[in-house]
Structures are given as C-alpha cells and as structure tokens.
C-alpha cells in the first residue's frame, strides 16, 4: 500500500503532470540554472514547452549547492503541486576529490577502502545538492578495446559483485531518509553492456541466456541486494531486443523474478534510439515499448510527454502503468526526504568544508597506492633518494590523471607525478623533460630528454593515454600506446640506463614495446587527485605495491577476448597428449594472457605452502575449510591478496577452468607467516544448468589457492549426495 500522501498527490495530478514526472531534462532548460539558455545542438532540437519544464521530475547534470537550490526554489514556485525535483548526475569515482577510476579500484581488492571512497564522494556530492548518482557501473568486461572498461571493476563476476555491494553501501548508507549526506545509487547498465561486440560502444550484444545469468547478471543482482534504489537501462540489445524496450528483461526478470520495485531510468536518449535499432517505427511506438518494458524515467528525449496520453486514449497503453511509474518516482523523492526538505543536504558552508578535505584526499591517496599494480621489477624498485632521476614522458607533469567521468574534478587540483617526486628528492637530483606529447611532438622534444637521461642514474618514463582515449565513446581497435611514445621508450632504452616506466591509462594495454624496454613497470591507471603523491610513495618505497589485476593484459589485441575463467576445449593445447598443430591455439602468439587476472608484484616475496583441506568429501549440508600458509620471506612489510579458485571437473555443461570464489587481503611483516582459511560450502559450487536451473552436481572439484589466477597450489575434494 502506498501511503496516503503520495496517493493523494498522484490523484491530483493531470495526465501531463504525470508524464512530466517521467521526463529527465538537462540543467540548462530550468529556470534558476546559472547557465540557462545555453541550449545548442541536440538540446535545441527538443523544443520543450514551459509546461513540461515546470512539471519535469528530474534534472540531469547540475552541480553545486547554490545553483541546485536556485533551480529547486524556482521550480517549487512554478510547480502547481509543489513536487520537488530530483537532481541526478554522474559521480562515478569521486565528486570534487577524484579517486582512482573503478578499474583501478578493482585492482586494490580492498572493499573497505572502496566503500569509504564512495561514502566520501557521496558526501561531497550531497552537500553540493545532488540526490542520485549513476553509479556503480558493474558491467562485466572482457574486451579492453571498449572505452568504458575503465568504469568497470573488471572481468570477474564474483569480484565485480563484491565491489558492487561495497559501492552501493558507500553511496547510500543504511537509511537514505536519515543519512541526508548520502546519494541514491543507480546500478548500470542493465544488462550486459560490457559485452558489446568488437569492444565498440553502443554496439550489439548477443549471448545465450545461460551465459547472461552465469557471468553477466550476478553483479547487478548483488548491487540490488545491497539496496541500490535505481537501475539504468543499457544501450545494447539483449536477445535481439534493445534493453530499453525489453519487457522480458525488465518486467519479467528485473521486476518479477528479482522483485525490484525501484526506479528504472533510460540512458541518455535510449528510448528514442529504439527507432534506429529498428524495433520502433516512430517516437510513439518507442514510448509505448519503453513504458511497457517498465522504464519509469526517460532521459533527454520527450517521447513520453509527446505520446503517452494519445497511447492511453487509443487503448495501446493502460494508464495504470503510467501511475505505477509516477508512484515509483514519487516514492524515491519521499525516501530522500524531499517533500519535507526539498534542498536536502545542499549547504554552501558544508560544501566548502567537505570539498577536497584533508580526510578525503588521504583516502584518495591510500586507494591510489593500493590500486597501482607492479607489473615488472628486476630489482630496480624501490628507488633510492640519493639517485639522480630524469623524469621523462608526456605524463611527467601532466595533470590529466583524473580519468573520464570526473566532471566536477579539476585537473588543477591533481598532484602530478612531478609534484609527488619533487617532494622526495633534492632539486639537484631531479630533471624533468616531456620527451614527446601523448601522440605527437617527438622531434622537437627528444634531444633534451635524451640529454637528461644520459646524465641521470635512473630514468622514470611516464607514458599513457589521454583521458579522451578512454571512457564513453572511447573505443580503440589498437590498444598499444601511441607510436610516438613507443619510439620515445625505444630511444631511451638504447641508452642502456635503468628505466622505470609508469603507465597512466584506462584499459589493459598491449605492452609490446613497453614491458621489454624497462627494468620495472608500474601500472598507475588514472589514479585521481592524489595520484602523483601515491605513485611517488610507491616508487621510493614508502609504500609497497599490493595491487592485483582485475582484468587480464593480452599478449596482443588479436587474443581478445582473453580472460582467466575461460572454458576448456575438446583439444586443449596443454593436454598431456596434445598434438603439435591440431589443438586450440594461435600459430603466432600464446593462448595465455601476458599478465593474468589477479597478477601483481610486490617489493617483498611471498611463499605459499602447506595447503590443506579439512576433508576430502562433503555432503550438500556440510562445509570444508581450505587453508594455506603465506610467508613473507623478503625485507619489506606488505599486503598480499590471497585468492581462492574452484573448478568443477565434470558437470552437465562445460565449466570454467577456474572461478574466483573468495579472497583475503592480509598484512605481513618481514619474516611473518599467517595461515589463511576459506570456508567452502555447497552453494559456491552451483551453476546454471542447460535448463537454467541453478544447482550443484555431485562430483570432484579442484580447489586452487595462490597470489593470482595462474600461480596456484591445488587440492581435490568430492561433493557427495
């Protein structure tokens, strides 16, 4: 039963007022906006009426307490029923304090720190006036050509699920009504957007329902179980039907099967895009299909306001569907407390105090340090403070390290690599030269860089992608660094000087021409506001790298998709009786990734020994304990992520060679050892059978424990009836 207040409000609304509640418009359209009237391009083509704007339900992309309060105040003056606006925006990995991009966050394997970073992002955004963020993005991704891979936490459904839960908890807290300095989260993109063919944005997705349920849906479900208030539709098709008009996906699976009663919102323009998809002849049919599918809010097109009334009058739609959608929007506004306080947490004084606070910056630095992954080290790292360092490359002092989806973040607030290093070294021990631009400008800058390198004891080479090379619409067929940077790396390598390469990028790269031209390689991703400080701490040993890849790095783009939890074939290359040629393989490159899921080095050494299982057989109502001892045999204290994988040896359908089922991040002092234990129960052995029933099968299972998905110790047990 809806409460009497909302029922009464809905009863008073005209049809046009209802459809307006289901329409989301960008900030410039609203009175009170500080840039009202700056409407050009596609926005201008909307030709909105004053009535629609004055009754619209939500605003897209407004930032700042003063402006949001001004828009809300003017809206409440004009709105007949005094229904407040919802303010939504993309707070993906920070508001003003920018944390590492989600792909980097996944490499931290630190759920507590991820949750804390989202709590801080929510607080900054909430006191700045926002109510909803379009996060987390939990799309599973196995193709690094896709630009939005940086927005995901990687290739594994289990790891993505745990990070989805952590992010929702951080954003929303436990009670949105009471916790006004939190945001409602919107999990996206439902569903399987990360599987776009060819890694090309907005492209087709085609997979079996079993694969969808087995690999791609779990992280969305985890986010919803954690309480995410909204879901955003994906741009792609599912089983031949675009997600935004997919009744089976949205009404049947999301609403009925999963019991989701929150708000479903389209992505930008996705309702109208049902027309070029070829499933709607015109905007009227697009509106009919989207609402029938269960989409409550249409983002940045007006098919609902233009056509819903006529569709009801022509008996193509039941007005009850519209009332249900409006009620869900009103319920979210009530849950956020907007009817009692339409300005919620917006507060200029709190905004000033919270934005880029010392505490927020500290968490940003800690997360950046734990997100960096040491890919190679021949003993060159950590560096010594008395070494003469030449810092060379297009990212030596580039502040474009926040990454995509950091709209409010300012590059001028970013701590660059130069900023971080110059706090460690005497001025006479550091020289900085660009060497080349990101994709141009080698000739005029190379000589100075080579001269600086020749006079140095060690060279730090800072390479990477500009932020425009990743993110939405940032798909790339070539995932190597630009050729100009590879040329710089080659010329520096020819000097036979020690080289440490630091990479700034938003996707796994083809590292040919990079990994072989350096003594050490540190993957820094887009590390955020405090990136340079975190990296400098790692380079000089004040912090010990602990990041582990949440997505495999390919040998070359031709291997893609390459991921750890793949299926076996009838002719596996590594079988004991495998032939030389007639096996599943490439003739010109290995099958395996260059660096597998879960991989990452440290300045210390960890030994895994004495793996045991508490029993060799379990019944379905029993559990067993898998244990292993991890020893720090090196001279540095450090954090190690111990990873548990399981393989079902014989099943009704083919099963992955390994599946992540648990992990623990532990701290070890030099010489210290710890026994790490994992509890294994029958529910961890379940999978979707060919008839989509989710259950386990009796039989043998292999348990693997190790520092990554490749280098593992194994034991076998049996599940019996």
Describe the model:
β12 (389-392), α17 and β13 (430-433) form a beta-alpha-beta unit. This protein is α/β, with parallel strands linked by helices. Strands 9-6-5-4-3-2-1-10 form an 8-stranded parallel beta sheet. The protein is globular. The chain contains 20 helices and 26 strands. The two termini are 44 Å apart. Helix content is 28%, strand content 19%. The model has no long low-confidence stretch (mean pLDDT 96).
Short description:
Helices cover 28% and strands 19% of the residues. With 721 residues, it is of the alpha/beta class. The longest helix is centred in the first third of the chain and has 17 residues.
Largest sheet: 8 strands, parallel
Q: How would you write the strand order of the largest sheet?
A: 9-6-5-4-3-2-1-10
Strand elements, count: 26
Poorly predicted sequence stretches spanning 5 or more consecutive residues: none
Could you list some keywords that capture this structure?
721 residues; alpha/beta; six-stranded mixed sheet; 28% helix
Secondary structure topology:
Blueprint: H1 4-12, H2 15-21, E1 23-26, H3 50-55, E2 58-60, H4 65-78, E3 86-89, H5 102-108, H6 111-127, E4 132-133, H7 157-172, E5 184-190, H8 209-216, H9 218-225, E6 230-233, E7 237-238, E8 241-242, H10 247-257, E9 263-265, H11 274-277, H12 283-293, E10 298-299, H13 303-313, H14 319-335, H15 348-354, H16 358-371, E11 373-377, E12 389-392, H17 417-422, E13 430-433, H18 443-454, E14 458-464, H19 483-493, E15 499-504, E16 520-523, H20 531-539, E17 606-613, E18 617-619, E19 623-632, E20 638-648, E21 659-668, E22 673-681, E23 687-688, E24 694-695, E25 699-706, E26 713-720
Parallel strand pairs: 1-2, 1-10, 2-3, 3-4, 4-5, 5-6, 6-9, 12-13, 12-14, 14-15, 15-16, 18-26
Antiparallel strand pairs: 7-8, 11-16, 17-19, 19-22, 20-21, 20-25, 23-24, 25-26
Helix pairs in contact: 2-13, 5-16, 6-7, 6-15, 6-16, 7-9, 10-12, 12-13, 16-20
């Amino acid at each position: 039963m809806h409460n009497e207040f909302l029922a009464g409000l809905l009863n008073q609304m005209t049809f046009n007022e209802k459809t307006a509640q289901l329409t989301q418009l960008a900030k410039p359209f609203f009175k009170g906006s500080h840039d009202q009237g700056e409407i050009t391009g596609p926005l201008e083509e909307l030709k909105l009426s004053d009535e629609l704007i004055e009754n619209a339900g939500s605003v897209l992309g407004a930032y700042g307490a003063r402006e949001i309060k001004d828009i809300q105040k003017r809206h409440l003056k004009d709105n007949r029923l005094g229904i407040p606006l919802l303010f939504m925006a993309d707070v993906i990995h920070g508001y003003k304090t920018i944390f590492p991009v989600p792909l980097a966050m996944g490499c931290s394997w630190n759920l507590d720190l991820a949750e804390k970073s989202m709590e801080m992002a929510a607080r900054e955004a909430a006191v700045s006036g926002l109510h909803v963020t379009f996060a987390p993005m939990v799309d599973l991704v196995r193709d690094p050509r896709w630009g939005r891979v940086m927005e995901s936490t990687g290739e594994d459904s289990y790891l993505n699920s745990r990070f989805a839960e952590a992010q929702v908890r951080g954003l929303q807290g436990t009670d949105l009504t009471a916790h006004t300095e939190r945001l409602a989260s919107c999990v996206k993109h439902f569903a399987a957007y990360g599987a776009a063919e060819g890694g090309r944005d907005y492209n087709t997705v085609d997979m079996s329902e079993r694969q969808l349920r087995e690999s791609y849906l779990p992280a969305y479900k985890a986010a919803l179980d954690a309480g995410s208030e909204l879901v955003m539709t994906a741009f792609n098709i599912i089983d031949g039907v675009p997600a935004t008009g997919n009744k089976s996906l949205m009404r049947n699976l999301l609403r009925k099967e999963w019991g989701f009663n929150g708000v479903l919102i389209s992505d930008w323009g996705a309702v109208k895009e049902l027309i070029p998809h070829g499933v709607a002849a015109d905007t009227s049919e697009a509106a009919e299909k989207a609402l029938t599918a269960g989409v409550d809010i249409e983002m940045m097109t007006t098919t609902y306001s233009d056509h819903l009334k006529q569709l009801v009058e022509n008996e193509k739609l039941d007005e009850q569907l519209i009332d249900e959608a409006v009620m869900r929007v009103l319920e979210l506004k009530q849950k956020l407390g907007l009817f009692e306080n339409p300005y919620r947490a917006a507060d200029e004084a709190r905004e000033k105090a919270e934005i880029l606070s010392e505490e927020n910056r500290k968490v940003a630095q800690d997360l950046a340090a734990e997100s960096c992954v040491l890919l190679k080290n021949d003993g060159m790292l950590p560096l010594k403070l008395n070494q003469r360092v030449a810092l060379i490359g297009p990212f030596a002092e580039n502040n474009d390290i926040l990454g995509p989806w950091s709209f409010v973040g300012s590059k001028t607030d970013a701590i660059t690599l130069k900023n971080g290093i110059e706090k460690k070294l005497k001025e006479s021990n550091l020289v900085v030269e660009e060497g080349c631009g990101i994709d141009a400008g080698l000739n005029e800058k190379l000589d100075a860089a080579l001269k600086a390198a020749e006079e140095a004891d060690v060279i730090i080479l800072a390479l990477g992608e500009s932020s425009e090379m990743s993110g939405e619409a940032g798909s790339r067929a070539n995932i190597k660094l630009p050729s100009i940077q590879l040329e710089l790396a080659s010329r520096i390598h020819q000097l036979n000087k020690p080289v440490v390469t630091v990479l700034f990028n938003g996707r796994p790269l083809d590292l040919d021409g990079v990994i072989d031209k350096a003594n050490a390689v540190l993957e820094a991703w887009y590390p955020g506001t405090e990136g340079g400080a975190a990296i400098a701490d790692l380079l000089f040993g004040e912090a010990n790298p602990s990041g582990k890849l949440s997505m495999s790095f390919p040998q070359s783009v031709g291997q893609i998709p390459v991921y750890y939890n793949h299926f076996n074939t009838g002719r596996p290359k590594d079988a004991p009786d495998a032939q030389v040629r007639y096996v599943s393989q490439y003739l010109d490159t290995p099958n395996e990734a260059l660096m597998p899921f879960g991989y990452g080095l440290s300045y210390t050494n960890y030994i895994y020994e004495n793996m045991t299982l508490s029993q060799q057989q379990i019944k379905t109502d029993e559990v067993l304990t898998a244990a292993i001892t991890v020893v720090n045999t090196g001279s540095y204290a450090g954090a190690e992520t111990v990873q548990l994988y399981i393989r079902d040896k014989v099943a009704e359908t083919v099963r992955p060679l390994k599946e992540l089922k648990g992990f623990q991040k532990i701290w070890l002092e030099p010489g210290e050892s710890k026994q790490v234990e994992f509890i294994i129960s029958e529910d961890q052995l379940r999978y979707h059978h060919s008839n989509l029933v989710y259950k386990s099968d009796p039989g043998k299972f292999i348990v693997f424990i190790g520092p990554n998905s490749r280098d593992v110790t194994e034991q076998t047990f049996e599940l019996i009836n």
